[in-house]
Amino acid sequence: MKIFLTLLGLIIITSNTYAKSDKEEKHSHDEITTNGLSSGETTTNIININVNGMVCDFCAQSIEKVFMKRDDVKGINVNLEDQKVVLYLKEEANIEDKTLSLIFEDAGYTVEGINRAS
Amino acid sequence: MGIFIKIAMLFFLLNFFYSILNARPISYAGGWTVMTYNDYTRNSLLLHYSPTSKYSIGYRTQYWQEKEYWINSFNLNYLAKRINRKHSQTNIYLKTGLGILSTDYKEYNDKKEPVFYGEFAADWETRKLFISYNNNVLKSASVDGTFIQKSRFGFTPYLAKYGSLHTWLMYELNHIPELKSNYLSNFIIRFFKSTNLLELGLDENKNTTLNFIKRF
Question: For A16-32, what is the HEC assignment?
Fold first, then answer.
């Protein structure tokens, strides 16, 4: 029982830690908007990507981390239900389709289709 | 009581590694993972870093309870093949480690010797179903040579959104040829939220399983 309690405490601590870091990153899990992020920022430079192989939260987190470290990305939305990723780029930024596919491939996933809103 | 002390030591190590990682900002260029597996055969703790999504390198410590030995090793995991489909993912992994086995068991008097282990693992997963198989071969110079294989089937009773608490119910069949009863069933419940994965299990002999994975 002590072990279970120790582990439970560990999970609570780690969950709180990540709740903070999630706020720092400008991504949203469920709030898909046409041009705005949950942080309140807006952009019309949006890329919708259909991705194969995203089956769990670890997959979504990996993709978020890969893209959120890029300077040209303002935000990201990963939708596991529809297997879609929405990228919110800075207005003047651009990521070529070939580059996007490579980034996903390097992360372990496969791009099925890319649709640009801007 | 001894086993509780040993498990407590593993969790101390887990907390120790966790505090190190939390004290410094971790780059997202590569992912860090802490994994601890505890069942009737062994307690193990693995800390690994993934330079790419293809492989990870790490340090692993494990204690085999019945055989009363420790193994400290360098660990390499390699993703040999991944197949991405619209609603599924299939993976084939090769895992290996090289280290030192140390034991005081019976006639052994603080014996230390090289040990090698290798593992083949495959899994297929959707958002609702999970199937996996893995086998593990361990060989030391003179103390032990063992083979274990496991297969799992799991499902989730509800489909949780990304970021919510996911719950999985799993059945695990273990095959350990060296035991009198070769096959052992294990029933596992998995909780998965954010970067934390916790598994609690109970096998047919009422031994408990406790696994925990944390990603950074």
Answer: HHHHHHHHHCCEECCCC
**Residues of chain A with C-beta less than 8 angstroms from the C-beta of B126:** 55
Distance from CA of B139 to the nearest CA of A (A): 30
Collect all residues of chain A within an 8 Å Cβ-Cβ radius of residue B13: none
Q: For B105-156, what is each residue's pLDDT tens digit?
A: 777 788 999 999 999 999 999 999 999 999 999 999 988 899 999 999 999 9
State the smallest CA–CA distance between residue B28 and chain A in angstroms.
6
* CATH number of the domain located at residue range(s) A27-116 in this protein: 3.30.70.100
B132 in Cβ contact with B122 (< 8 Å): yes
**CATH of range B2-215; options 1.20.140.10, 2.70.210.12, 2.40.160.40, 3.40.140.10:** 2.40.160.40
ipTM score of complex: 0.75
Beta-bridge partner residues of B89: B84, B125
Q: Measured in whole angstroms, how far is the alpha carbon of residue B42 from the centre of its chain? A: 10
How confident is the model over A60-110, as pLDDT tens digits? 988 998 999 899 999 999 999 899 999 999 988 899 999 999 999 988 899
pTM over the 0.80 mark: no
Cβ(B98)–Cβ(B86) under 8 Å?
A: no
Q: How far apart are CA A117 and CA A44, in angstroms?
A: 7
